[in-house]
Amino acid sequence: MALPDRREVAAVFAGGAIGALARAALGEAFPLAPTQWPWPTFAVNILGAFLLGYFVTRLQERLPLSSYRRPLLGTGLCGGLTTFSTMQVELVTMLDAHDYGLVLGYGSACVVAGYAAVQLATAMVRRVRIRA
Amino acid sequence: MNALVWVGVVLLGGAGAVLRFLVDGAVSSRVGRVYPYGTLVVNLSGALLLGLVTGLALSHQGALLAGTAAIGSYTTFSTWMFETQRLGEDRQVPGLAANIMVSLVVGIGAAALGRVIGSQL
Prior knowledge:
The structure holds two protein chains of two kinds.
Chain A: H1 6-29, H2 39-61, H3 69-81, H4 85-96, H5 100-127
Helix pairs in contact in A: 1-3, 2-3, 2-5, 4-5
Chain B: H1 3-31, H2 37-56, H3 60-74, H4 78-89, H5 93-120
Helix pairs in contact in B: 1-2, 1-3, 2-3, 2-5, 4-5
């Protein structure tokens, strides 16, 4: 395996630190009961999916090649802001509480809204014409 | 919550993202990027680890640092959804469905298993 570029790693670290801080602060500000809809996780995940769709589409299809923007904004910021593991533990907690409606509702809402957020952001970037 | 804990959140959040970057790169360089196996490995291993940390029943600060900051940042929802949407654009419907279902079903199983292991430790 080729060693990753040091600046790329630094960009991932910086973005991930900011994203994780924002997610943790939101979670601390809104503590939840296990059978509640996990709004903090849901909000950061859907927002992060939208932002990632926007950033990556713009970087791949609209902007000149850059070595640090995608690691900083995509892998770092959006990756750190969003979380898969917390969502899975939340689903397990809902299963414990036998709240199967919430399990199905939350699980499918995450997937549908996350997918739609990427799709929307992608379409928004592509709709903007490139100035000649 | 003291300021040192938030410094820890920042450092561990950055470290989790770097670990994800390295693991994804290592997996993808071996099996290619046609299917997003790198993200799958990251997310499933992270679900197992977060389940384990949950089972350990740490203090609030311990759970915030190890769980929310480090493992939360290691796993990613946005890349999972992004890669799923791109599979959809390429009309790879079986790949799209598998990427959602395997992640969710195995992810829940991994988190539950991790919690059992953690509570035994």
